[in-house]
Specification:
Length: 84
């Protein structure tokens, strides 16, 4: 858990919104998504907003949105995750 000041400091940096990739069958490509999240974190991103304001949000069911947030937390355990 982060203190209020730690959260404030992190939010003063880049808050990235990863795009949710889809597989050929129309399902969320979980492996590709987690690779993208790890790439962002490895590049210095410390705050992620899955299901942010990117267009695919509207194509996801509530269960898929929840899964994308879970995938983000699993792929970036040290990042602050703000669900969109």
């Amino acid at each position: 858990m982060y203190s209020t000041s730690q959260l404030r400091d992190r939010r003063c940096s880049v808050v990235a919104i990863p795009v949710t990739p889809f597989a050929a069958d129309g399902e969320v490509d979980e492996q590709c998504y987690q690779s993208l999240v790890r790439l962002m974190v490895d590049g210095g991103i410390t705050v992620l907003t899955p299901c942010g304001n990117t267009g695919e949000y509207y194509a996801l069911s509530p269960a898929e949105r929840r899964r994308v947030v879970e995938l983000t937390v699993a792929a970036a355990p040290d990042a602050v995750v703000v669900a969109g």
